[in-house]
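Human:
Class, as today's exercise, you are to examine the entry below, and be ready to discuss the fold:
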Amino acid sequence: MRRFFVALAFGFSLAFALSAPAGAQEDSAAENPADPMAPALEAYRAGQFEKALLVATPLAEKGNVSAQLMLGSIYNNGEGVTPNPEEAARWFKKAAEQGDAGAQYALAMLMEYGRLKAADPATARKHFRDAAEQDHVAAQAELGLMYTTGRGGPQDLAEAAKWFERAAVKGNANAQYYLGTLYAAGKGKPRDLGEAARYFGLAAGKGQPQAAYQLGLMLQDGVGMDKNPARAADLFEEAAQKGVLGAQTSLAFAYLNGEGTEKNDTLAAKWFAEAAMRGDALAQDRLARLYFLGQGVTRDIAAALLWLTIAEQNGMTDDTLRSAMEPEITPEIRAKVQAELGKLENGSPSSN
């Protein structure tokens, strides 16, 4: 829900930006006392949500689009009230039916990510399209994603590319990333690794973590651009810090091998552990190796066996490591590991 809250809050601030020029919006309520929404907007900006709700509700009931948007935002975000996505959707729908692009986008986002009881992907796609056709950039990116996945209707990668491109040109980082993936795969667009790298770079420059990871992979191997291990390692770290699983494993390997960064077994173990705890089988196997060797961590046969077993359960085999470990595995170690594995149903295993 965080993604929706942030996107909605931004869209809401735009929807409520009155016609005053930049830098004068805080005074807009005083400058435009004839606007019936001015007191509600002033209260909302001051964090007086109950007052804003009191003023905006009768206006919303009379069809005021700005008031309907405000109520939708208040109920969705739980500002001064208990969060109520159903009530938020009701108000966004009223504004959407009047053709407001922000409301159409917000309603579609609630249908896709807000767990509405009557959520319908096909209806969400329709609302995204309605907003996208009015040049709502975030809606264009979401619409492209629905065409990519085939959610809410037929899959159409060429149509997806069209909408991603429209949003990418306007600087939407997610659209730039998605468009890069289409160029990289040659789907919906002719395969062009140079263009893929360019769009990944644009998105990464705006902080899009998946784009940073993909650009790092291309730089690491010299695909579509000159090889640059140091820049790749920087991008892996940027994406890893934001929780991208593959980037965490790639960064761990960079530290382990000293590729693009100074070799550091302790940091390698740290990032392998991060990725292992989140289910990456390769990271689980490498973490098991580090525990067996005592490399970057205190040597611990039980921890090594635990992570190797988990990796095997996730489809990763390492006969060499298992054979090397076998002579040191005592009945006590096996029992300890079995006990740890039994805890997996109720939580994550310990890392040592």
User: Anything to note?
Assistant: Residues 1 and 196 are 29 Å apart (CA to CA).
